[in-house]
C-alpha cells in the first residue's frame, strides 16, 4: 500500500518527511487552506526531493490554465482536484501530461455511482470525509461504506487516519491503492510529526 503525506508547507519539515521515503508528498495550492504552501515552499525546494517521491499539487475549483502553469513551474507529477471539477477539466489536465486524482467527500448518503463519470478522465480517486473544510478535517468516515465502491479504479483512502485506526486497514474492502495522511500526523496545521510518520511507515512495512 502506497503512502501519501499531504499538506506540506515547512521547508525543513519537508526535508525530514522526504527522508522517510513516502511514495507521494502533497502540496496545497488552495489559498483557503491553513496548509497553503505557495508562500513558504519554492519550486527549487521541490526540485531537491528524491525522484522516487511523486509530487502532488492539490487544487480546489481552480482554472485549468492556472493549475497547469503552477504544476509546470513546480514540476509536479500529479494533480489532485478537491472541488467541483468536471470530468472535462480532469481530462484537460490529464492531456497536459499530469496524473489526475479526483477527490470525493463521503458520508452515509454518498452515491458511489457518481464516480463513474470520471472513470476515463482520472487515474485515481480519493475518498475523504465530508466536512467543513476541503480535506484535513481529521474526521474518519465509516470504512464499511467502501464496500459500495465497485469500480476497478485504484483509490486513495483518506479521512482521519492515525496510528490507531491504520491497524485496521487490512479490513477495508476493496483494498486501497494508497492512504493519504494529513491532520492525524501533525503537530500543527502544515507541520508534520516526524516521529509519527516514521512509525506509520514502519507499521505499514510490517503489515505488507
What does this entry look like structurally?
By secondary structure, this protein is an alpha/beta fold. The chain has one domain: TIM Barrel, CATH 3.20.20.70. The chain is built from 5 helices and 10 strands, in the order E-H-E-H-E-H-E-H-E-E-E-E-E-E-H. The strands form 2 sheets. An 8-stranded parallel beta barrel has the order 1-2-3-4-5-6-7-8. Strand 3 (54-59), helix 3 and strand 4 (78-81) form a beta-alpha-beta unit. The chain starts with a strand and ends with a helix. The model has no long low-confidence stretch (mean pLDDT 93).
**Separation, N- and C-terminal Cα atoms:** 8 Å
Strand content: 15-25%
Shape: globular
What share of residues is helical?
A: 10-25%
Order of helices and strands: EHEHEHEHEEEEEEH
What would you say the CATH architecture is?
Alpha-Beta Barrel
Radius of gyration from CA coordinates: 16 Å
Domain N-(5'phosphoribosyl) anthranilate isomerase (PRAI): 3-202
Pfam families: PRAI (PF00697)
Organism: Pontibacter fetidus
Pathway: Amino-acid biosynthesis; L-tryptophan biosynthesis; L-tryptophan from chorismate: step 3/5
Explain the layout of strands and helices.
Layout: E1 2-5, H1 11-18, E2 24-28, H2 43-47, E3 54-59, H3 64-74, E4 78-81, H4 87-95, E5 99-106, E6 124-129, E7 155-157, E8 178-181, E9 186-188, E10 191-192, H5 194-207
Parallel strand pairs: 1-2, 1-8, 2-3, 3-4, 4-5, 5-6, 6-7, 7-8
Antiparallel strand pairs: 9-10
Amino acid at each position: 500500500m502506497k503512502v501519501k503525506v499531504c499538506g506540506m508547507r515547512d521547508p525543513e519539515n519537508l526535508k525530514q518527511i522526504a527522508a522517510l521515503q513516502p511514495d507521494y508528498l502533497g502540496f496545497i495550492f488552495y489559498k483557503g487552506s491553513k496548509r497553503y504552501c505557495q508562500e513558504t515552499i519554492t519550486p527549487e525546494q521541490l526540485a531537491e526531493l528524491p525522484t522516487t517521491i511523486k509530487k502532488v499539487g492539490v487544487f480546489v475549483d481552480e482554472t485549468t490554465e492556472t493549475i497547469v502553469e503552477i504544476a509546470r513551474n513546480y514540476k509536479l507529477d500529479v494533480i489532485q482536484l478537491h472541488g467541483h471539477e468536471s470530468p472535462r477539466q480532469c481530462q484537460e489536465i490529464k492531456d497536459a501530461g499530469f496524473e489526475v486524482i479526483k477527490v470525493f467527500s463521503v458520508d452515509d448518503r454518498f452515491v458511489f455511482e457518481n464516480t463513474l463519470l470520471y472513470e476515463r478522465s482520472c487515474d485515481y480517486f480519493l475518498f475523504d470525509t465530508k466536512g467543513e473544510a476541503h480535506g484535513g478535517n481529521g474526521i474518519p468516515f465509516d470504512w464499511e461504506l467502501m464496500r459500495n465502491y465497485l469500480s476497478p479504479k485504484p483509490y486513495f483512502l483518506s479521512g482521519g487516519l492515525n496510528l490507531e485506526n491504520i491497524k485496521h486497514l487490512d479490513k477495508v474492502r476493496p483494498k486501497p491503492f494508497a492512504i493519504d495522511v494529513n491532520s492525524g500526523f501533525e503537530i500543527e496545521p502544515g507541520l508534520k510529526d516526524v516521529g509519527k510518520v516514521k512509525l506509520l511507515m514502519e507499521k505499514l512495512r510490517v503489515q505488507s
